[in-house]
Write a structure and sequence with these properties.
Largest sheet: 9 strands, mixed
CATH architecture of the largest domain: 2-Layer Sandwich
Radius of gyration: 22 Å
CATH superfamily of the largest domain: Pseudouridine synthase I, catalytic domain, N-terminal subdomain
Number of helices: 7
Strand content: 15-25%
Number of domains: 3
Length: 236
């Protein structure tokens, strides 16, 4: 792998920044100052330092994002801002994409990754990876409504959803919904089948990941090593 590509995919420096750092003698490979930005390096064996800091190569990246209102869950869109636009330029070239979608006006936890196989496993209904959402609806929900929700609901197109858990708050208009599948606008359509309307929706967990209390809306961070391991285990 080229040195400049290693630093790029490690979200350390762009290729132009790598070239400048090489000219300034700020990059070392196995203790020796790098002479060329395109020199070959082995990310598994060679020790690379950028401005005195060790570079750790990771083939896959996992970013936890607190999605704000008005952003679409896509890598690009000609009309609306995408969740990838919330990341700095160094991350936009890593091949990240949303693992599952949140509607434009749905808030909360979103996982971005470049690991396609893991994403496929996490989203497969056969693996029953749960997703929890805080919600509010326009009209109070009855016990009968909740029972129908837990049994699975027939949507307007005839699709029968899998059973979904619902925990109702005292006001009967808010609570937490847990899904193990993720059809298009599913919660909104399930509520419409009950002649109700979602007025607020926020994903608060995805499998073993929970939305951190200290992560502001629109902010992001990479997963910790422990969170990565929990995520990999959930996909097995």
């Amino acid at each position: 792998m080229r040195l400049d590509k290693l630093l790029s995919v490690s979200a350390v420096a762009t290729r132009k920044e790598t070239a400048r750092a090489v000219r300034a003698g700020q990059i070392t490979v196995n203790g020796a100052v790098a002479k060329r930005a395109d020199m070959a390096v082995d990310p598994e064996k060679d020790s690379v330092c950028f401005c005195g800091n060790a570079v750790f190569y990771k083939p896959y990246r996992y970013v936890l994002l607190n999605k704000p209102d008005g952003y679409v869950s896509a890598t690009e869109d000609g009309r609306e801002p995408t969740v990838l636009e919330l990341l700095p330029p160094l991350y936009t070239g890593l091949g990240l994409f949303p693992c599952g979608r949140l509607d434009k006006h749905t808030l909360g936890l979103m996982l971005l990754t470049n690991n396609g196989e893991l994403s496929h496993r996490l989203l497969s209904p056969r693996r029953h990876v749960s997703k929890r959402y805080a919600f509010r609806v326009k009209f109070p929900l009855s016990d009968t409504d909740c029972d129908r929700f837990r049994d699975g609901v027939t949507l307007e197109d005839g699709y029968e959803t899998k059973p979904a858990d619902i925990e109702l708050a005292e006001d009967k208009r808010s609570g937490v919904i847990t899904l193990v599948e993720g059809k298009y606008h599913q919660i909104k359509r399930m509520m419409e089948a009950l002649h109700n309307q979602i007025t607020y929706l926020e994903r608060i967990s995805f499998g073993p990941l929970a939305l951190p209390d200290d992560l502001p809306r629109g902010a992001w961070r990479e997963l910790t090593e422990q969170e990565e391991q929990m995520l990999l285990a959930a996909a097995e």
